[in-house]
Amino acid sequence: GEGDALTSRETGLALSVVTADCVPILLAGDGEIAAVHAGWRGITAGVVRATLDRLATPADRLTAWLGPAIGQCCYEVGDEVAARVVAASDQGVARPGTGSRPHLDLHAAVSSQLRRAGVDEDGMFGPEFENLFQQVSTLLLAASANSRNARDADG
Questions:
Q1: Can you tell me the distance from the alpha carbon of 79 to that of 105, in angstroms, rounded to the nearest whole number?
Q2: What are phi and psi of 104, to 5 degrees?
Q3: Which helix (H) or strand (E) holds 43?
Q4: Is 72 helix (H, G, I), strand (E, B) or coil?
Q5: DSSP secondary structure letter of residue 82
Q6: DSSP β-bridge partners for residue 102
Q7: Are strands 5-8 and 32-38 parallel, antiparallel or unpaired?
Q8: Which of 45, 59, 64, 152 is most buried, most CB within 10 Å of its CB?
Q9: Could you tell me where the DSSP H helices lie in 55-129?
Q10: 108-115: long-range contacts, CB 8 A cutoff, minimum separation 24
Q11: pTM of model > 0.85
């Protein structure tokens, strides 16, 4: 069925989650696993806590993997959405954007919720690399600038 999280204690079963901008989370504990789709709506609705509550493994014995998601550089939201995510996680997950709208760090929001629930930071793993969206944006801007420079040199 549809939903933002799946849990299982069945041996030999794999769970997966498909996301675009949202944070995919995989959790593993004592003979059980979970797959979570955590966007701003799920974060504010408590999908992380609800999933942890369904698992029998104590939070401090879980391993959590956070997959790639949109980065704070690129995730512009309205003030109301930012306020809801901050209230559900931590003040540091929102920062002023280049315009008048705030930018959110969904990874930081999920990490905050996991830590608050008791998941040990040493058991949390995620992308330790520059945000993919930021890399693509940088490459596109450089290509655009090179194209303009080449046209200017020819013309």
A1: 14
A2: -110, 145
A3: helix 40-45
A4: coil
A5: H
A6: 96
A7: antiparallel
A8: 64
A9: 79-88, 106-116
A10: 108/72, 109/38, 109/40, 109/43, 109/85, 110/23, 110/25, 110/38, 110/43, 110/48, 110/66, 111/66, 113/43, 113/48, 113/49, 113/88, 113/89, 114/48, 114/52, 114/59, 114/64
A11: no
Q: What are the pLDDT tens digits along the chain (155 aa)?
A: 468 999 999 988 889 898 989 999 999 999 999 999 999 999 999 999 999 999 999 999 999 999 989 988 889 999 999 999 999 999 999 999 878 899 999 999 999 999 999 999 989 988 754 455 555 556 666 666 655 555 556 55
| Token pair for 127 | 């992308």
Dihedral-angle region of residue 118 (phi above 0 means left; psi in -120 to 50 means alpha; beta otherwise):
left
- Output the six-digit token pair for 29: 């504990």
**Between vectors from CA 129 to CA 123 and to CA 135, what angle results, nearest 5°?**
150
